[in-house]
Write a structure and sequence with these properties.
Belongs to the transaldolase family. Type 2 subfamily. One of its GO terms (cellular component) is cytoplasm. Its main location: cytoplasm. Transaldolase is important for the balance of metabolites in the pentose-phosphate pathway. By secondary structure, the protein is of the alpha/beta class. It has one domain: Alpha-Beta Barrel (TIM Barrel), CATH 3.20.20.70. Helices cover 56% and strands 9% of the residues. The chain contains six helices and four strands, in the order H-E-H-E-H-E-H-H-E-H. The protein has a four-stranded parallel sheet with strand order 1-2-3-4. Helix 2 runs parallel beside helix 3 and helix 3 runs parallel beside helix 4. The N and C termini lie far apart (43 Å).
Length: 174
Amino acid sequence: MQQGNGVEEVFWGLAVTDIQDACDLFIPLYEESKGGDGFVSLEASPLLAHDGDGTVAAASRLHKLVNEPNLMIKILATVDYIPAVKTVISQGISVNVTLIFFSLARYEAVIDAYLEGLEAANAQASLAFKLFQEKFNGPRWEALAKRGANKQRLPRYSLHCSLDRSWHNEHHAS
């Protein structure tokens, strides 16, 4: 930390480091379960209450800062945050949606946001694959391949959404 940082900046610096360390501890479980378990959740600032766009920006920023595959960004299941769930998931960021217990209608809205986010991510992945196929075929690529160039590897995304930990723990207890 550099001298002169504000309290919030210091907090997030420490929080990111702690979350990275926790992610490192849980990565063996994450890998062994093929991404089914071993996640660590980090919530965006509570100062963003009722600010869906701010939450999306914070989720993207934290996802980039932590840079761990087993990170989940925690987003509350409030009316203001439902669109943020969809947007964050569509960006390929795993989400832990919390406080769904308000009503079945809220739970349904969270499920819809999750599905819509996955659909958007899938559409983006399809476009990226199409672009990949276009760019790595044809005379330009073939000339490079003849000189030993290798094709770029496509990134793989793993999307997860934890809808309600208490429900999950109750119904998946071992």
